[in-house]
Structure formats: C-alpha cells, structure tokens
Amino acid sequence: MRASLAVLALALTAAAPAPEQRIDVALSSFKFTPSTITLVHGQAYVLHLTSSGGHNFAARDFFAAATIAPADRAKIRDGKIELDSGDAVDLHFTAPRAGTYPIKCTHLLHASFGMTGKFVVS
Ligand SMILES: [Cu+2]
Question: What's the gap in Å between 69 CA and the centre of ligand 1?
Fold first, then answer.
C-alpha cells in the first residue's frame, strides 16, 4: 500500500503542468491594451480581461485552437467574450500551435476605430 501511494505521488508530480502565467488585457474605447499578446505553445495561462465600456473580445480562431479550461468554456459565445463596463473575466487556457490569431471587438465600428489585436504564439 505504501509503495503504491509513492508511485501515485510520483505520477502526480510528473504530470504537474508548468505554472500558469497571468496576462492582463484592458478593453477600452477603442483599443486592447496590450494589443499584441505573445504566448508559448503548450504553456498554461490565465487571461484576465477588464473593460471600461461595452466591448467584446472576439478571437474565434484562437479559441477554437487553444485548449480552454472546461469551467471557462461557457464564457465564450460564438467565438466572443462579451463585457459590460466594469466587468472582469478570467479565462484559463493552454496556448495552441504556433501562429498568429486575430482579436477584435465586433461591436459596430469598434474595429474600424482601432479595436483590434492579435495573439502571437511561438
Ligand atoms: Cu468595442
């Protein structure tokens, strides 16, 4: 019994993921700060979004490719996370394959006013 517990403890240790890194992104009229988010494939992150207005964080290709924590999947609707002024949303995920994935706010004209960004995964 003691030996099997030791094996279990070793297995849990080996499976432990790298520490999660936090990324803060502020949504405001009309920008994402920062607008470029650099990630490393396979690394775990928590994306902390805050908004000072009614905006969304639309990143359909990224959300489809990344591994989103099951408890956070319902925060994404139709490839977007909607935020009202004062909202804060945390999204836990593991970065997908290398590439560049666009981000925008899909509210009327917000992207044309400059509310765009991108994930760059290496
Ligand atoms: Cu917006």
Answer: 25
